[in-house]
Each structure stands twice: as structure tokens, then as C-alpha cells.
Amino acid sequence: MTNPLILDGTRVAEAIKEELKARIHTLESQGIVPCLATILVGDDPASETYVRMKGNACKRLGIESKRIHLDKSTSTEQLVEVIAQLNADPLVHGILLQHPVPHQIDERAAFEAISIHKDVDGVTALGFAQNAFGYADYPSCTPAAIIAILDYYQIPIAGKHAVVIGRSPILGKPVSLMLLNRDATVTICHSKTENVAEMLKHADIVIAAVGKPKFIQGEWLRKGAVVLDAGYNPGNVGDVDYDACLAGASAITPVPAGVGPVTIAMLLKHTVDAATRLLRH
């Protein structure tokens, strides 16, 4: 077999951001500066890093980043009130609530408080439903990134058998629906699935989103499978045993520099999309 194609997420992300630059310039000429509000509750170091990274990405592109940092003792009611204020602010186009939130907060209630028109991270139930029907303005960013990578490298989806490992409401489930809407045959595996290895032997496309380091083994793969690793675990490793899977895959994303950079690029794109809606209404 020829060497596998390395699906370079940094390259895909740069292409997306390059296209956004002209759109941002057009918006600015109309007096509109795209703005993403990020809400961080508590002081989780990893979350602080993620929020900072997203803010820096906004700044480099000319998107305003409005950062709101709430105390770890914040209640669900207080958080929902902050979100309501952002919903009502015409200068804020996208709202991102950083996950996870402290235990006393009803995370689902907080997500549902975000206006569908500002749900650029695709976390609301309505956004999920729109994604299922194939017309979401802002699907969840990591699933959108996975589809963007496949499209950038012109990897066929229609008619292919995709196996998704993981069923989270913002990754495994929505990406399965997006693949289904693109005419793939989709199998979803999860913690109760028996013999995951056997399932993968029939997969043309493998989406790893299980949250277990190096879970997917090379011998599980069908020869020539396309592997997209959406996992990120301590030690900069994904959910795929990269070295073991490299030999048999026809294409594979590395970790880091695979799905991650494109996820952030899709968040920026959705924010610009939300700001662009102002020109249409």
C-alpha cells in the first residue's frame, strides 16, 4: 500500500481562516465587527487554556473576543442571567459556554438558555434537531470540522460505511447525523457495544470520539480505511494508536494538528456567519 495521506488540520484551518478574512473585511466596511462571547465558570486550568486559545484565534483574525469569567460558586440562575444579557446584546454574535461547568450548575439548562441565533458551538437541543434535519446554521464545531476535513481532501462520503466510536451529544451523535445526511451508512459504537474491533473491520471511515487514549488499534482497521481522530488526551495523544493505525490507513489525522485546529476555525466561521446574518435582516 502507498503511504497514507496525512490529513493536516492546520492546513485546512488556515484555508478556512483565509476565506474568512475577506468576509470580516466586508462586515467591517458595513460597521459590523464579529464578536464571540466566551463564558468560563470557575478556574479549571485546561478550560482557561482553551478559552485563551479561542480568544487569541479571534484576535488574530479580527474577531472581537468578549471574555466573561464567573466565580466557581456561580449558580445556574446567575449563569442563565448572564447568558440572557448576551442574547440581548446586539454587538455579540456568538456565545460559547466553556465545558465543563462546576457541579452545582445545570449545564443543560445553561446551554438551552443560549439563543439559537447565537449558538455558534452547536450545543442547544434545537441546534441538534436542526442538524439532524440537515439545515443547522451552526452544527457542533468538532463534527463540522470532521466534515470540513473530508471535504477539503475530497474524500468521498456518499455510499461509504462510517463507524463512529462515541455517542456524546456534541460529537458522536451529531457527526453521525451529518454523515448520514451526506448519504453514508453509519454505525455508532459506544461503551456498551460488544466487539468494537469486529465493527471496525467493515468501516471505510472511522471517527474516533471515545475519550480513551490510543483506544483504536491498528489490527482493528479495514485496509485502506480513512481515520479521523477527534480525541485529545493527556500527553498529546488521541483516541487512535496513531503509529499502529498509520500502516493500514489510506488517510489519517494526527494528534495534535488534526481535528483540533479545524474545530477552532469552525467556531470562528460560525461567529462570522452569525454576524453576516445582520446584513440579511
List keywords for this structure.
Rossmann fold, alpha/beta, 281 residues, globular, 6-stranded parallel beta sheet, 3-stranded parallel beta sheet
Q: Strand fraction band?
A: 5-15%
CATH superfamily of the largest domain: NAD(P)-binding Rossmann-like Domain
The largest beta-sheet arranges its strands as 1-9-8-7-5-6
The chain-level mean pLDDT equals 96
How would a crystallographer describe the biggest sheet?
Answer: 6 strands, parallel
List the helices and strands and how they pair.
Elements: E1 5-6, H1 9-29, E2 35-41, H2 45-61, E3 64-70, H3 76-88, E4 94-97, H4 107-112, H5 125-133, H6 141-152, E5 161-165, H7 172-181, E6 185-189, H8 196-200, E7 205-208, E8 226-229, H9 242-246, E9 251-252, H10 259-280
Parallel strand pairs: 1-9, 2-3, 2-4, 5-6, 5-7, 7-8, 8-9
Helix pairs in contact: 1-10, 5-7, 6-7, 6-10
Nutshell version of this structure?
This protein is α/β, with parallel strands linked by helices and 281 residues long. The chain is built from 10 helices and 9 strands.
Give a verbal description of the structure.
The chain is an alpha/beta fold and 281 residues long. The chain folds into 2 domains: 32-117, Leucine Dehydrogenase, chain A, domain 1 (Rossmann fold); 140-259, 3-Layer(aba) Sandwich (Rossmann fold), CATH 3.40.50.720. It is built from 10 helices and 9 strands. It has a 6-stranded parallel β-sheet. Strand 5 (161-165), helix 7 (172-181) and strand 6 (185-189) form a beta-alpha-beta unit. Helix 5 packs parallel to helix 7, helix 6 (141-152) crosses helix 7 and helix 6 crosses helix 10 (259-280). The model has no long low-confidence stretch (mean pLDDT 96). NADP(+) binds at residues 166-168. Pathway: One-carbon metabolism; tetrahydrofolate interconversion. It comes from Paenibacillus endophyticus. Pfam families: THF_DHG_CYH, THF_DHG_CYH_C.
